[in-house]
Design goal:
alpha/beta, 223 residues, 5-stranded mixed sheet, 20% strand, globular, 30% helix, Purple Acid Phosphatase, chain A, domain 2
Length: 223
């Protein structure tokens, strides 16, 4: 089975469409959360993910779609969530609320989670991937997001993968990131992908929506 994996779209519809257009044929598509936040198309991105993804788990921004003040100390996050709270329909809000925290993508045991498998909102950066091993006794692979940093590693025969961020990369590469997992080999194999998109269009849309200038600026920096 080939699984397309996306994460951290953050309401960047232009980047999402570029990723979907670029992705090779896959058997199913999964999203590791944070469909909304930061950028100006929360409703449109929710609809595209609902249409295309067989499985989506809940990210921290998805969880706070109704409570933007949770991020009052982070202006970029707060304003993105405030915009989402204004533009999402009740059905879209309900869909976000009902997303599971974790999911198993295959019978082989592929854990999908937004952040740490046990500790909510904890970042798992590339150097910490080996520390996930105690949580993976029942799984052959773990796919997670949250850091916006694309990375893959094999730890004790188990694939650990962050496909990177579709809509707000933070690994100094501004191109939209995603991955494809081939579950047939053992250990499983991840193929990392990047695709360019029209960052300037998104920056202009951010400004028109009244989002912080820093939200627009960071897109071209990849951080």
């Amino acid at each position: 089975m080939r699984i397309g994996v996306i994460s951290d779209i953050h309401a960047n519809l232009v980047a999402l469409e570029a990723v979907l257009d670029d992705m090779p044929p896959v058997d199913r598509l999964a999203c590791a959360g944070d469909v909304i936040g930061y950028n100006p198309w929360p409703a449109e991105c929710v609809e595209r993910v609902r249409e295309r993804c067989a499985v989506t788990v809940r990210g921290n921004h998805d969880r706070n779609a109704d409570t933007p003040n949770t991020y009052s100390m982070n202006r970029m996050a707060h304003e993105g969530l405030k915009l989402a709270s204004e533009r999402l329909s009740e059905a879209q809000r309900r869909w976000l609320r009902d997303l599971p925290r974790t999911a198993d993508l295959t019978e082989n045991g592929v854990l999908l989670v937004h952040d740490h498998p046990e500790h909510v909102d904890q970042y798992v950066r590339p150097h910490s991937f080996p520390q996930l091993r105690p949580y993976l006794d029942d799984y052959e692979a773990c796919i997670l997001g949250h850091t916006h940093v694309q990375h893959e590693a094999t730890v004790d025969g188990r694939l650990i993968l962050n496909p990177g961020s579709v809509g707000q990369p933070r690994d100094e590469d501004p191109r939209a990131a995603y991955a494809v997992v081939d579950t047939a080999p053992s250990p499983m194999v991840a193929h990392l992908h990047r695709v360019e998109y029209d960052v300037a269009v998104v920056q202009e849309a951010c400004r028109e929506a009244g989002l912080p200038e820093r939200t627009a600026e960071r897109l071209e920096l990849g951080r």
